[in-house]
Specification:
Helices cover about 45% and strands about 15% of the residues. By secondary structure, it is α/β, with parallel strands linked by helices. The strands form two sheets. Strands 1, 2, 5, 6, 7, 8, 9, 10, 11 and 12 form a ten-stranded mixed β-sheet that branches. Strands 3-4 form a two-stranded antiparallel ribbon. Strand 7 and strand 8 form a beta hairpin. Helix 1 runs antiparallel to helix 3, helix 1 crosses helix 16 and helix 2 crosses helix 3. It starts with 8 loop residues before the first strand and ends with a helix.
């Protein structure tokens, strides 16, 4: 079977909690039609980091890798990802009360509302991180990156596992560092502040990489990609216009959290893609042979988006959350209309994630001619 070589191609997978199942459906449609597609540069952040390392660590073809990822997502549940830290919350509550009423000094440290140890165990059992090094050494991969926010420095740090000649970088509030990826890097990249505890890597503590990642396409650009395939989890119509609903009540905390999560996980990719297209348009007007100070180059980008609102698809299934988590969600208004966006980030359940994969598959199938032209086109 023909192998499709794309030495300049990068795959960018952004964050979005349970919404990341949509990415898997898109990749399955591509893998079915191009099972031997080669993507040398993989970059991921937050939930996209989970998909990134699972693909990068697979020993087989691209088609086999995406089938394996789909199989795991088809049985992934909340219990495999996180659990509520009840004892920790109770201890923190009593400590806070004691400090206030007994006038004791000190601060109350809440190390996340949820515990991510289930996800750590899930990944440790199913992802062979040593295989990433093997795939890099064989030339199958050029580089795999995961990004996380460093609470110590405030920077977005991109951890790079790649060939010896791959570059690192230092920019304002972001830098790339070389190192072998581990399960700690994945957990750190997906650790949403407040909800999940920070992860210690080296001398720093890290959380979700989407929090301060203003340029999610930058790692792929720094690593030399001339074509970028990115998968967004914001519906096509949501990019151009906002959903307008009749406001009948004060917004619940869940609605506010949903908006906050959108700003963290969805906005950056859209704005960065627009910025890249503007640069491409400028470069088209530059005379051939002109020496550019910044050594800019045109980079093709294809952003694949869902045809439906992924948040709205979560609403019928919110009661499938475990009882204690459902109670927490109810306490902040998660059952009210307009709060489904927040629920969609937490709803790791096949009743929700399997339809997302089917939607991603159908959307990519619908756009296959465009995808095929992008994969076969010249940089």
């Amino acid at each position: 079977m023909k192998t499709t070589s794309n030495s300049d191609l990068a795959l960018v997978l952004s964050g979005g909690g349970a919404r990341a199942a949509y990415q898997v459906g898109v990749l399955c449609a591509i893998g079915e039609r191009r099972p031997h597609l080669e993507i040398p540069i993989h970059t991921g952040v937050s939930a996209g980091a989970i998909n990134t390392v699972t693909l990068a660590a697979h020993p087989g073809s691209f088609g086999a890798a995406v089938r394996a990822v789909r199989k795991e997502w088809s049985r992934l549940t909340v219990e495999d990802v996180y659990r509520v830290r009840v004892s920790g919350l109770v201890r923190s509550g009593f400590r806070w009360v004691g400090q206030r009423f007994l006038h004791r000094k000190g601060s109350t440290v809440v190390r996340g509302l949820f515990d991510m140890e289930p996800l750590r165990a899930f990944l440790a059992q199913r992802v062979d991180f040593e295989r990433i090094e093997s795939n890099v050494a064989s030339g199958k991969l050029r580089a795999v990156t995961l990004s996380a926010a460093c609470y110590t420095s405030g920077e977005t740090v991109t951890f790079i596992h790649g060939a010896p000649d791959v570059p690192t970088w230092k920019r304002s509030q972001r830098r790339g560092v070389r190192g072998q990826l581990t399960v700690d890097h994945v957990i750190a990249s997906a650790a949403i502040p407040i909800l999940f505890p920070a992860v210690r890597i080296g001398n720093g503590f890290y959380g979700d990489g989407s929090v301060r990642q203003a340029a999610p396409l930058a790692p792929a650009v720094h690593l030399g990609a001339d074509r970028i395939l990115a998968i967004s989890m914001r519906a096509k119509w949501q990019v151009k216009q906002s959903r307008r609903e009749v406001v009948t009540h004060y917004p619940s905390a869940a609605q506010v959290m949903g908006l906050l999560f959108h700003s963290i996980f969805l906005d950056s990719l859209d704005s960065d893609a627009e910025r890249l297209e503007r640069i491409n348009n400028i470069l088209r007007g530059v005379p051939a042979g002109t020496q550019l100070v910044e050594q800019l180059r045109p980079i093709k980008i294809l952003v694949l988006r869902p045809s439906l609102d992924l948040g709205a698809l979560a609403r019928p299934h919110w009661r499938r959350l475990p009882p204690i988590i459902r109670s927490l969600v109810e306490s902040i208004g998660g059952q009210r209309e307009g709060a489904s966006d927040f629920i969609s980030y937490l709803l790791f359940d096949p009743a929700y994630t399997v339809p997302l994969m089917e939607l991603g598959y159908d959307d990519a199938t619908e756009r296959w001619d465009e995808i095929e032209e992008f994969l076969d086109g010249e940089p």
